[in-house]
Specification:
11 helices; 7-stranded mixed β-sheet; Rossmann fold; alpha/beta; two-stranded antiparallel sheet; 2 domains; Helicase, Ruva Protein, domain 3
Length: 280
């Protein structure tokens, strides 16, 4: 089945609508890029796909052609009439209106290991990834169109790691698949985009028992990322300077380093040493 291109301008005009800047509405309209996203997401005929920010249905249609089922979530109730029109011929699409950050995707998806493929509003990138990666029923793969610079930060190596990068990389292999020029969207955003893929690991790289400690330690360290670790962690859990130095020494980490230089393995070791010290 060959899909006829959608005209975002014509659809919006027909329904008397304008894109809402406050909702980050930049609709991906280039058919070539839409097809590449579906391919990069690895969508197959047996897959269930969660799409977030269905917009006008441009990507939804391509997902529906490739997948067994698609659950398309859209926050803006104004667009539901447009989506019902553009998706009328697809019987394997379920439309859900609401805020994905207040929803449990597992309620709509029949299988674990579902896929997420979406052109998301840039402003919810961090919150959405935390929401999906912390869900009881996790996807097996994410394919998200996000701001190019944010995708680069998420895929960074030790030395340039951010709290966001750690929060994603602990759960899966993050890769920048390709960049998408601003001109592929309507209205045209002020930045270029990229497709970020995250293939989730069977288990997080840090032991489940240490995950909560890992995140709290990392938040404390990155809140003072310009400081050396022995100073950045002095205020954590009332450690004080001597306690932070002792913790880092026991974890075999140089206290003169900074948070962004630690690898996930080192963060895991630090979290384990702290937890075991608290338990002892």
């Amino acid at each position: 089945m060959r899909l006829a291109p959608l005209s975002a301008q014509a659809l919006l005009r027909q329904h008397g609508l304008r894109p809402k800047k406050s909702l980050g509405q930049n609709f991906l309209v280039d058919e070539g890029w839409l097809q590449r996203i579906v391919q990069a997401a690895g969508v197959g005929a047996q897959d269930e796909v969660l799409e977030i920010g269905a917009g006008l249905g441009s990507l939804t249609r391509h997902l529906a052609l490739a997948a067994a089922r698609v659950c398309a979530v859209e926050l803006d109730g104004r667009l539901m009439g447009v989506l019902q029109q553009t998706l009328a011929e697809f019987r394997n699409v379920r439309l859900v209106q609401g805020d994905i950050l207040e929803m449990n995707p597992g309620e709509w998806l029949q299988s674990s290991g579902y896929l997420v493929a979406a052109n998301i509003p840039y402003y919810i990138t961090s919150a959405l990834m935390r929401h999906l990666l912390a869900a009881e029923r996790k996807p097996r793969r994410l394919a998200l169109t996000i701001q190019k610079e944010v995708a680069q930060r998420i895929c960074a190596a030790p030395g340039q790691l951010s709290l966001l990068a750690l929060s994603v990389q602990v759960f899966g292999d993050a890769r920048l698949e390709f960049c998408i020029p601003a001109g592929a969207f309507y209205p045209v955003p002020g930045v270029d985009s990229a497709l970020l893929s995250v293939q989730l690991y069977p288990q997080p790289l840090i032991a489940p028992a240490d995950l909560e400690t890992f995140f709290s330690l990392a938040r404390a360290a990155f809140s003072h990322k310009r400081k050396m670790l022995h100073n950045a962690l002095a205020g954590y859990a009332s450690l004080g300077g001597a306690g932070a130095a002792r913790l880092l020494q026991q974890a075999e980490i140089d206290g003169n380093r900074r948070a962004q230089t630690l690898s996930l393995a080192e963060w895991g070791r630090l979290a384990r040493v702290f937890r075991e010290g608290q338990a002892g």
